[in-house]
Design goal:
Mean pLDDT: 89
Number of helices: 5
Low-confidence stretches: none
Strand content: under 5%
Distance between the termini: 28 Å
Helix content: over 70%
Largest sheet: none
Oligomer: single chain
C-alpha cells in the first residue's frame, strides 16, 4: 500500500486510539477498521494521484466512495466485509467532523 499522506495517517491513528480507549473496541475490531480506512485512503491517493492530507479528506465525493467500493468488490470482498468497511469509513468521517470540524 502506498502512503496515503502523513496528515491522514496521523488522523487515522488518533481515531483508532479513540476507538480503543473511549469506546473499548477490541484489538481485532481496531485492526479491521485500520485496514478498511487505510485501504480507502490508499484508494484516494491513487485515484487523486497524490497524498491525501487533512485538507483533501473533505474533497471525497460519493463518486469516489462508489469507485472505492467497486474496486473492493472487484478484488473479491464479500458484501458483508464491504458493509463493515463502509461503516468504518463513515465512522472515521463522522469522528473527523466532530474532532476536526
Amino acid at each position: 500500500m502506498s502512503a496515503p499522506g502523513a496528515g491522514a495517517e496521523a488522523l487515522l491513528a488518533r481515531w483508532l486510539a479513540q476507538l480503543a480507549a473511549v469506546r473499548g473496541a477490541s484489538p481485532r475490531t481496531v485492526e479491521a477498521y485500520r485496514r478498511d480506512v487505510a485501504g480507502f485512503l490508499d484508494f484516494l491517493a491513487g485515484h487523486w494521484g497524490g497524498p491525501v492530507g487533512r485538507a483533501r479528506l473533505g474533497e471525497a465525493s460519493a463518486a469516489d466512495m462508489r469507485g472505492w467500493m467497486a474496486r473492493e468488490r472487484g478484488r473479491g470482498l464479500s458484501a458483508r466485509s464491504l458493509a463493515r468497511a463502509l461503516s468504518a469509513v463513515r465512522s472515521f468521517y463522522a469522528w473527523l467532523g466532530e474532532a476536526e470540524g
